[in-house]
Design a protein that fits this description.
CATH topology of the largest domain: TIM Barrel
Radius of gyration: 23 Å
Helix content: 25-40%
CATH architecture of the largest domain: Alpha-Beta Barrel
Keywords: Glycosidase, Hydrolase, Signal
Protein name: Arabinogalactan endo-beta-1,4-galactanase
CATH superfamily of the largest domain: Glycosidases
GO molecular function: arabinogalactan endo-1,4-beta-galactosidase activity; glucosidase activity
Strand order of the largest sheet: 3-4-5-6-7-8-9-10
Number of domains: 2
Distance between the termini: 6 Å
Number of strands: 17
EC number: 3.2.1.89
Signal peptide: 1-15
């Protein structure tokens, strides 16, 4: 039996950086009788609770006319429409958080595979379509401004990797002579609104991790340069071979090359691969092949802390988590009743929706900063392969360890009392596969290693 292992990922905190959450479904979840609880089990108002725990900004998505879509329960969809977003904005503002508005320019979800325009714009082309994009963007800002909830950021599109405001599905790639002016129409509307109202709304473009490097260059070549923020989606499940360090390198490159603020606009991590709190299948069934954290509540937290530290250390301006409040309820979307994401929310569906440790991510920049674990401080050895054990040698005292299977199940542990510089982890009974070894240092720092057993 031998071990293949990856790089060391110390969990540390450094410079402050914006932390935000997407709460687009929260109103609909509460209408569907979903209940949020704090870590003690007390019922809480989700907006107030996210603010209390440290969220600085809330991302809200806006669909043009979601009522054009039927839910899986047979009723027109209303969540994500203008009135729902206005209500969410008021609740966000009342809780003391800023607002980031994501305009999808569609009647329902748009993403790298589809960028279908609103039905109201079918048949429009050329200047008529550009005028519709501009006018819609401006009117949305007017509605938000009129109730005192002007967004700090407005994203012109959502994950626009392969097209924007398309007439058909799926997307078939950019035609920059036509698509460049579409982006510019939205960006110009934000700038004109700011001039007319004395506001400072920042415009943003949103791409995915796999396209961002190439896409930013394409946008610049097409003359789309007047936006303020470049947002990135990064889900280990959808980008299984991308390491957190590579995300840091991407953020550093984009910041230096284009002079824009760079943020993670979406991320998500499963804390539990087991079946969820309802019959709606969860779509995050894994966390990729290289991220060194197990599918546990602590693993979700540690992933977010490491991602945030890496983004901020590389010049990034913030990290938003996608839909941490999408818990199971009677809410119906186009595909099911309940939630297909409760295993990646910030509330434990197996413990009556109590708050999870992932909320600690929102305290980044306010908790005590710890020094990084020095490179080479911890080494793993097969000891030897034939004796069924893994040896950990450290220059820093280890207070305990936990070993997790790939699905997040804890398979072994040793926690206190005391500490040691040498730890032996028994492996003879382990099946072939991937595991996660989490070390707890005496000073409170945690180190996670991804280990392959053959």
């Amino acid at each position: 039996m031998r071990f293949l292992f990856l790089l060391l990922f110390p969990l540390t905190l450094s410079a402050q950086c914006l932390q935000g959450v997407d709460l687009s479904y929260v109103n609909a979840v509460e209408e569907g009788e979903g209940i949020y609880r704090d870590s003690r089990g007390e019922r809480v108002d989700p907006y107030a609770y996210f603010a209390e725990r440290g969220a600085e900004m809330v991302r809200l998505r806006l669909w043009h006319t979601p009522e054009n879509n039927q839910s899986s329960c047979g009723a027109p969809i209303s969540s994500g429409g203008m009135e729902d977003v206005l209500l969410a904005a008021r609740r966000t503002d009342s809780a003391g958080m800023g607002i980031k508005l994501a305009l999808h320019y569609g009647d329902y979800f748009v993403d790298p595979g589809k960028q279908r325009r609103p039905a109201a714009w079918d048949g429009l082309a050329d200047q008529a379509l550009l005028d519709s994009i501009y006018g819609y963007t401006y009117r949305v800002l007017e509605r938000m401004h009129a109730q005192g909830t002007t967004p700090a950021i407005l994203a012109v599109g959502n994950e626009t990797d392969n097209g924007f405001v398309d007439a058909t599905v799926p997307t078939d790639g950019f035609e920059w002579a036509a698509d460049g002016p579409k982006f510019q129409a939205g960006i110009r509307a934000v700038a004109a609104f700011n001039t007319a109202n004395g506001t400072a709304v920042k415009s943003a473009i949103h791409l995915t991790e796999s396209y961002a490097r190439y896409g930013a260059a394409e946008l610049q070549q097409a003359g789309v340069t007047d936006y303020d923020i470049l947002g990135i989606s990064y889900y280990p499940h959808f980008h299984p071979e991308t390491t957190i360090a590579e995300i840091g390198n991407l953020v550093s490159h984009l910041t230096a090359a284009y002079g824009k603020e760079v943020m993670i606009f979406e991320t998500g991590f499963s804390f539990n691969h087991r079946s969820g709190g309802d019959d709606y299948n969860n779509f995050l069934g894994g966390n990729g092949n290289v991220v060194p954290y197990p599918a546990t509540p602590e693993g979700q937290r540690d992933f977010l802390l490491e991602l945030t530290r890496t983004v901020c250390d590389n010049g990034g301006a913030g990290v938003f988590y996608w839909e941490p409040g999408w818990i199971s309820s009677e809410m119906c979307d186009a595909w099911g009743r309940g939630s297909s994401y409760e295993n990646a929310s910030f509330f434990d569906f197996e413990r009556d929706n109590r708050a999870l440790p992932a909320f600690e991510f929102l305290e980044y920049g306010t908790v005590a900063t710890r020094e990084a674990v020095p490179e080479g401080a911890i080494t793993l050895y097969a000891n030897p392969p034939v004796d069924g054990s893994l040896r950990v040698v450290s220059t820093l005292p280890i207070a305990g360890w936990r070993l997790f299977a790939a699905d997040g199940r804890e398979v072994d542990r040793k926690v206190g009392p005391g500490s040691d510089l040498n730890v032996t982890v028994p492996t003879a009974s382990l099946a072939t596969g991937g595991y996660f070894l989490q070390l707890e240092l005496q000073d409170g720092r945690r180190v996670s290693r991804r280990v392959g057993v053959k």
